[in-house]
Amino acid sequence: MESFAFLLQGLGSALQPENLLFALLGSVLGTLVGVLPGVGPAAGTALLIPMTFVLPAVPAIIMLSAVYYGAMYGGTITSVLLNVPGEAASVVTCIEGHEMAKRGRAGPALAIAALGSFFGGMVATVCLVTVALPLTRAALRFGPPEFFALMCFGLSLVIGLAGKSLVKSLLVALLGLALSQVGMDPTIGLPRFTFGAPDLVGGMELVAMVMGLFGVGDLLVNLERPARSATQSKVGRLFPGRQDWRRSLPSIFRGTVIGTGLGLIPGVASAVPTFVSYVIEKRVAPEPPEHWGGGAIEGVAGPETANNAYVNAALIPLFSLGIPSSPTVALLMGAFMINGLIPGPFLFTEHPDVVWTVIASLFIGNVILVILNLPLVGLWVRVLSIPRGILFALILVFCIVGSYSLNNRLFDPVIMLLFGVVGYALRKLEFPLAPVALTLVLGPLMEKGLAQSMMLSRGDPSIFLTRPIALALLVLSVVVLVVSSLKTGVSDAVRQDSEV
Amino acid sequence: MRALNQLAALLFLLLGAFMVQRAFVYKVFIEQIGTGPGFMPMLTGIGILILAVLLFLESRIEPRGLRPGFLPDGAGWRRIGGVVAALAAAIAGMNVLGFRVAIFLFVVVVMSLVGTHRLLVRLAVGLCVSVAVHWAFVNKLTVPLPAGMLGF
């Protein structure tokens, strides 16, 4: 009940005209990011972070959160109409959604996807409201050893599920950790790895590195092949019929449970809930096997609902524990930190007005998205007719000016370019990028947690063995990595960077 | 892929060794405080060293050669190389030429590399993008962008 009282206060603030405007802007930009192949949610968020510097904390975070879940709505449109997934989590929708479009039923596919996403998103946000405070209260009893162990656990889940090779996943995680150590050390303020360069004393800008790794790197991969034109299906009649609803509703409920449950687990890529939902629908839905692959509406309703429920539920570990579950959420965490807020249990006690306003804005954002996406489908599809040359030039211009605006110096665009090349190379060699993004954000916090723990124990590392919660989390981390190394048959299709 | 992964392993090996070496310079432990500035670099460096060796060993079971389509064709390399060079030139040229001129030239070059537009279209788009982005960032977001020697 206490949570709902806070939520009502937050809603009052979220409904202020300024916050509403930025929720709308974020939803539009997020849908655009989702529609455009070649710009994933992580790159889109990184591109937009510099533009939020002039904004107060609350509208900035509202806008970036809306970009995050808006991208999932946008990806559906191109999957259904063009058989081109706007982002990896929409791949499954191509299977059944585009088949429906080829049969002249694009409208019902898009409508069910949007309405299912709305329902899943709202339920997941209610879970966030219900679970956040109790989880936060439990986490407030954590000390530095527990937080350090929790971050290790969150990272182990991301690393374990990130790519085909555990060694490569661990290597890039440590690469991110190494990069996060450039600059002043948190213990005595000694400059590290600066090579005498004044620009490196403050460390390398996270946003510039992520823009390079995810934005420029992905674009370079897209440049390998010439542009292909996609055949677009017509939208037709928008609303589903009675039979469509009868078949979709159980799938929507199942997708909500799957997406919300998996969103609570850090490290689960956004493609996982959609694949899991699709597989379950094929087994559970009463339609015969030949129905699948030919435009089964359950194959749109379930995965799309799971996708959006996942995205909203993934904010629970971020808000309550300060653990980002994916690259985009790690960037959201970075945005919090840029605004002087540290996500985690103390956020609820020190800045309750901020956090409850942002949570309330999730409800508003989901409403805005369903209104935006249904009637404006044709407009979003027209965006894809922008020639690739213009689109790529625009994206790169925003990368340059966005990275420059971080500190008004050319060093950051140089970093962006360098990491663009590094990101391209890592992609080609099948190194996953999700662990890098997380350790870039969590690295300084982990080092601080470790240093504080060692100070508490006067240099005795057994503090991690004598505190039961820390020990349990560290053991679980090792178990996750060991199990992952055994390659328990998780499909390669879901072991990928879903948000890049 | 085998050779490329082995090259990657070697680069990570060098990185790990470098980090361990620097860790000793920064001091791994400080008596009065506990862990020193070199502690995390030491842990990270050792981790990278071990994993680099494992990567090298893992790559030995991979097939030699590259799978078809792994590397881009000549046109693909030209696009990639051209865009990277254009980015570097735009960044280097911003302080000299100013933001608007540098970005105008950048957009024209990228559109030439990636698309098949007529020259007039490229010039028009370059002009619009450079002016619009400059206006948005300088006037609306109050981000000062370089003016360059030409003063604009």
Description:
The complex is a heterodimer of chains A (500) and B (152). Chain A is built from 22 helices and 2 strands. In chain A, a hairpin with a 6-residue loop joins strand 1 (183-184) and strand 2 (191-192). The radius of gyration of chain A is 22 Å and the shape is globular. Mean pLDDT of chain A is 84; it is low at 488-496. A two-stranded antiparallel ribbon of chain A has the order 1-2. Chain A is mainly α. Helices cover 70% and strands 1% of the residues of chain A. The longest helix of chain B is centred in the first third of the chain and has 25 residues, at 2-26. Chain B has 152 residues and is mainly α. In chain B, strands 1-2 form a two-stranded antiparallel sheet. Chain B is built from 5 helices and 2 strands, in the order αββαααα. In chain B, a hairpin with a 3-residue loop joins strand 1 (29-30) and strand 2. Chain B is flat and about 60 Å long. The model of chain B has no long low-confidence stretch (mean pLDDT 89). Classes of the chains: A mainly alpha (500), B mainly alpha (152). At the A-B interface, helix 8, helix 9, helix 18, helix 19 and helix 20 of A face helix 1, strand 1, strand 2, helix 2 and helix 3 of B.
| Percent helix of chain B | over 70%
Q: Helix count of chain A, per DSSP?
A: 22
Largest interface (CB within 8 Å) is between:
A-B, 61 and 65 residues
Shape type of chain A: globular
The helix-and-strand class of chain B reads mainly alpha
